[in-house]
Each structure stands twice: as C-alpha cells, then as structure tokens.
Amino acid sequence: MQPSLNGGQTGLIEQVIGPGLCVGCGACVGLCPYQEYKDGRIVVIDRCHAENSRCYQICPQCAGGPQKPGGIEGALSVPDGIGTCLEIHMARGTDDEITAGSQYGGMVSSLLVRSLESGVVDNVVLTTKGGGEAPAGTLARSREEILACAGSRYNAAGGLAAMNRAYGNGATRMAVVGLPCQMIALERLAKLQPDGSERSGAVELKLGLFCTWALDYRVLRDFLKSEGIDAPARKYDIPPPPAARFDVDTSQGMRHFPLDEIRPAIQKGCRICRDMTAEYADISIGAAEGYPGWNTVLVRTETGRRLFADSCAAGLVEVRPLPEANLEHLAEAARNKRRRGEEALSEIRGGQS
C-alpha cells in the first residue's frame, strides 16, 4: 500500500526541511505564502497549521510518491533502470545559434525552441545562470530567453517556483525543464487538492535531465571562494569517467577540481533519490558518454514522440542510434543510484518512500 499523500506543513518540516532533505525543487513555493526560495534554499517564513496542505502533497521528498510509469502501448524492452521508453536515440541540435551555449548536444534548447516556435507551448520554465545569488527559476517566452538559460547548473535552483508564479499569473501551455525530483513533483501535482488537475493541465511538456546529484549552491560558492574564484561561473561540467573531476569555467579562467573535493557540497536530500533518468518526463536527456557534442535522448510518451519527430522533420535535430554499450552503462548507473537511494531511505526513514 502506498503511504498517504495527505499531510501539512508540519509534516513537510518534520520529514524534509528539518532533517535537511529538501532538494530545493521549488514545488512548494507559490502554492502558499509560507515558503520562499532564497539564494539556493527553501525557507519557511511563517507557520501553517493546516492538517492537509499542498506543500506536503507536491513535495517529491515526502512520503507517498507516485507509482513508476508503465503500461504505455509500444514501449520498448529496455534494461532495468532506464524506465519506460518509446524511443531511444543519440542526437544533437543542428542550429549553430542554439548549440553554441549548450552543455553537450543542445537537445534541450533545440526541442524547447521548436516547441515554442511551432506553437506547442507559449511559456517555458527554465533556470537562470545566477550571478550574485543562486540560479533560480524563470519564465522564457522567446528563443533568445531560452538560449540565455542554456547549460547545466549542477545546483538546486527552485525552478518550479517559477511555474507556480506563472500559473498564478494566468500562464498556461507551459513546458517545464527539470531534474528527476522536479519531474516527480509534477507527477504529484495532478493529485493536489483542490486544484491539482487544473494546474497539471497547464503543463504541456516535461523535459527531464539526467541527474546523479545536485550541489548546495551556498556550500559550492563558499568552496569556490576559498579557492580564489569570486567571479560567477559561466559553465560547470563533470566530464565522463574516468576523469573524476569538476570543471568550472569563469572569466578568471578554467579551473579543475577532483570530484572528491566537491562531494561535501552534495545536497543531503539527494541521497534518498532513486531516479537518475527522470522517468516521469515526456523526454529525458543527458550526455552521450564517449561522444562529445551528443546527447542521449529517451522518448517516454506520445507527447515527447510528437515533438521529437517534428524537430527532426524541421531539420533541427540530427539522430544516430545510441550504442548498446551506452544504454547498458546508463542502466547500470541508474540501478546503482536507485540502490543507494533505497539504502539511504531505509537508514533515514525505515524504508518509507
């Protein structure tokens, strides 16, 4: 039996915020006035004593998570850990303007530009690059605004707060880009009482990003300052194994750090996450290991399939088969994350998901 989704802010504080398990997804911010996103973290600014509140219902770290997706007609037979897929590709964008600032193959930006310019969506929820403060959610309505947010942050960024604000201001037909925890929150969104179905209906497209863990922005910022890096980062990167390093590109130049020096900045809440490949997204995207400039693309739903096919037909995407070895390695990494998450969950909560 699944644990109940019902609970109040007190449950959110006791289960998530108090123990330091919040991952800063931003889903609770904007649903009520009692939480805000401040410089990389969710903070409680006032107490709510409702026994059943939306902040608890939507939180991906609270008990009562959604069932794994499945039962989609035409789904491929894939290794355990990958999740439901209709198509699997290695792909990259073909528009130099779109791919210039991308992390790898520019697939997220390419698909978003196509979805916006073809009228599939009117609004895109993305993450800013930050600056003086942590990256944060933002709403893009043009190609230029999408491209301004290109690249990976490796930080929690409260992106879903921007979605909630946009909905409150009347926005519909939204695309949301997010980490696996944020895709889980969107899956829980439909079950919110009293208005979950209406809010969920405003999201037309979900693009999920592969994620092993995210960093606490404040801890990372302090670490970089201790290493003499005061300028905002233009780009972060974790090259494929066996590099085992964290790269930081700033106006002061490129710096390389052993991953072991960065690990203390990993959010505690990431320990209990069991989803690496964003299984609740319409399309999940990550690097294609061993193929610089290419992405791994997992098409999971008919919504995702239509957009991917349309982007290919428009000449915005180049496609190749994903090598079997890449798929197997991705599946192994996903299973390892799930195992670690289950072990951590058992240690922290006695296994209650």
UniProtKB/TrEMBL annotation:
Assigned EC number: 1.12.98.1
Keywords, ordered alphabetically: Iron, Iron-sulfur, Metal-binding, Oxidoreductase
GO molecular function: coenzyme F420 hydrogenase activity; iron-sulfur cluster binding; metal ion binding; oxidoreductase activity, acting on CH or CH2 groups, with an iron-sulfur protein as acceptor
Keyword Cytoplasm: no
Location of the 4Fe-4S ferredoxin-type domain: 13-42
UniProt entry tagged with the keyword Oxidoreductase: yes
Pfam families the UniProt entry points to: FrhB_FdhB_C (PF04432), FrhB_FdhB_N (PF04422)
Gene3D superfamilies associated with the record: 3.30.70.20
PANTHER family: 7-HYDROXYMETHYL CHLOROPHYLL A REDUCTASE, CHLOROPLASTIC
Record protein name field: Coenzyme F420 hydrogenase
Organism for this UniProt entry: Uncultured Desulfatiglans sp
